[in-house]
Amino acid sequence: MGSTGGRRVGRPRAAQRPETGLSPRDELLAAAAELFTTRGYAATTTRAVAERAGMRQASMYHYVSGKEELLAELLESTVTPSLALARDLLAQDAAPAEGRLWELCRTDVELLCGGPHNLGGLYLLPEVRADRFAGFHAVRAELKDAYRQLIAATRTGGGLAKSELDLRTDLVFGLIEGVILVHRSDSERPVAVFAEATADAALRIVGA
Amino acid sequence: MGSTGGRRVGRPRAAQRPETGLSPRDELLAAAAELFTTRGYAATTTRAVAERAGMRQASMYHYVSGKEELLAELLESTVTPSLALARDLLAQDAAPAEGRLWELCRTDVELLCGGPHNLGGLYLLPEVRADRFAGFHAVRAELKDAYRQLIAATRTGGGLAKSELDLRTDLVFGLIEGVILVHRSDSERPVAVFAEATADAALRIVGA
């Protein structure tokens, strides 16, 4: 992409790339996160994403295969950090499960509510049901299973029948994902306060 | 719209109207509910809604002004029955608030999860932030305020500072709306069981 002696080679760029220090791929992900959550996924064209990231549509295809790949990666990015923590916490099986479950809830809420865009809102897109998003569904199921294992390891959780354990897992997981909706309407409260209160509420649901 | 002696007058209809016994307007709402939740709001054309309801696009405009009106009415329909119940329950101020809050939670979950389509998923559409949907936001805020009043009337709720009352209200409201997400992934469990378990969980969050 060199220019010779200040003269532009080839056609000028669609727009100036913002100087964010991000890689072109991360620039595209940031642009997609903004546009998908503010304009909507179906209403956003690949061209709009490329322009927002300061590149031509044709250049974009050097980095990603299209809109679906960007959505899949954004969705997975809301789960994988929590999943890594969940695996660590599951391995610390000498520590009380109550504290580990609390920590997972707190961190998960901070992650879901703390970013600049409400990516959790993308979970409900009808498009996300497609096989193309199997990777996201797999990591989300794995995270939910980690919640289930931690709940089962609590003092009250150990005595629950499977159907009751599944029910409490759904309620805790529903609470965590549901707080996305309410947090958006009231963003004056610090995320950390809300995350700790949600973790407390999750332990009360479990009965711990 | 009469036909004379079995001969069709004018052009044939786009499709046969299904014999559901619904009014044309309700037929359009049912078609919109299905298409918005399965294909997505932005991806659904008014023409597709009209065809699904068995009428021409031009006829549709006799009954509704367009896609936005259908979405606004569908959104409000997820709130207004719960709001009517909430007003009744608030008026019964001789009865313990715990039981009234439990009943509101149970009914609200049955309503959100019990319909044929996951209309709660439409809450997160970016389009819904527009002024056009102020009516929906107003009834939803009124419902949330009813939750707040019932929580404040419980024995533990009465002693809470305003910020703590707001926090518990957000957690209970978040739980109720969040169960939409998890219920969709596991629809084998009867809605009634899930609704009662959610109401129990809400009371535990409040500390009642």
UniProtKB/TrEMBL annotation, chains A, B:
Residues 45-64 bind DNA. PROSITE patterns: HTH_TETR_2. Keywords: DNA-binding, Transcription, Transcription regulation. InterPro entries: Homeodomain-like_sf, HTH-type_TetR-like_transc_reg, HTH_TetR. Residues 1-24 are annotated as: Disordered. Residues 22-82 form the HTH tetR-type domain. GO terms for molecular function: DNA-binding transcription factor activity; transcription cis-regulatory region binding. This is TetR/AcrR family transcriptional regulator. It comes from Streptomyces spongiae.
